[in-house]
Design goal:
With 296 residues, the protein is α/β, with parallel strands linked by helices. It has twelve helices and eight strands. An eight-stranded mixed β-sheet has the order 1-2-4-3-5-6-7-8, with helices on both faces.
């Protein structure tokens, strides 16, 4: 029998935790449930705890729900450091150890899914389960990619060199962080256009106004790719739920699903009529799938 969970659009106020000398913002909703593990929600690139507001309100009656802003995003500090999956892995592991105080089910969307997988695979004492929602991250290529034509190769080299320059990455950042660009991007990756609200646009726009935001943007795109997904899956030893927004234009969910199943066949997965962020686009459906997987 399906349970209907309350959904509200108002973000829940949070607080700050000091990690390696930097302020990290997080939200906690509901009391401790000793019979169930806590649930930690991890946002994607450019998002924040606000992107989980519908899930926090919908799940907090049955779970001890936490959400965190990865360092460099949301209301967390944006220091001039190198950003990577390893950095966020360590942040999340320390947060679970020192703040939550017991292993959690980690749920991550996009970049947050990759960070959550890094924790579950490489810091297994922190994870009792893993939920990946249109998770990002590279797989190892079975063979070298074919050689690009000389002109295409030259253009690619020039582009990479160009965006190593601070002025070029700053100009790109100023373009992509504009409210109109944010709205157009969201409209491309959400199937339900009514879910692209002024509130959502503003929640993504506001953190980009922080002084350190341009440097974070530059660092993320200059950092070498992290550990490959297949390597992480070979280290994973906990239950895995995969939720796919099948209308995601940024990734082929069918192909990625097959790769995940190849390397971790014991996973559970569901395909959802949504785009890149099904937790925000169809929160009732995602909340019910999470609830059922953890409890049942």
């Amino acid at each position: 029998m399906q349970t209907t969970l309350a959904i509200t659009a108002t973000p829940i106020p949070g607080t700050y935790w000091q990690w390696r000398g930097h302020s990290v913002y997080y939200v906690r909703s509901s009391d401790r449930h000793l019979e169930r593990p806590p649930l930690l929600l991890i946002h994607g690139f450019g998002a924040s705890t606000d992107h989980w507001r519908k899930n926090i309100s919908g799940l907090s009656k049955e779970f001890e729900v936490w959400a965190i802003d990865l360092i460099g995003f949301g209301r967390s500090a944006k220091p001039e450091i190198q950003y990577s999956g390893e950095l966020w892995r360590d942040q999340l592991h320390d947060f679970i150890t020192n703040v939550i105080g017991r292993p959690a089910v980690l749920a991550g969307n996009s970049l947050g899914g990759y960070a959550a997988l890094c924790v579950a695979a490489q810091r297994p004492e922190s994870a009792t389960g893993l939920i990946l929602i249109n998770s990002a991250g590279p797989f190892s290529e079975p063979q070298p990619a074919p050689e690009a034509p000389p002109l295409q190769k030259a253009i690619s080299t020039v582009a990479k060199t160009l965006f190593q320059q601070d002025w070029a990455s700053f100009l790109l950042f100023q373009y992509v962080r504009g409210r109109s660009t944010i709205r157009k991007t969201l409209q491309k990756v959400y199937l339900d256009q009514s879910a692209v609200t002024d509130q959502l646009v503003e929640e993504i726009y506001q953190p980009s106004c922080d002084p350190g935001a341009p440097k974070v943007f530059a660092s993320v795109f200059r950092t070498p790719q992290g550990e490959k997904i297949d390597v992480l899956l070979s280290q994973l030893n906990c239950p895995l739920l995969m939720l796919w927004g099948e209308g995601d234009p940024w990734m082929n969910s069918t192909n990625r699903s097959a790769k995940f199943r190849e390397h971790y066949p014991q996973l559970t997965e569901h395909f959802i009529k949504a785009g890149h962020c099904p937790h925000d686009e169809v929160p009732e459906e995602v909340n019910e799938l999470i609830r059922a997987w953890i409890i049942d």
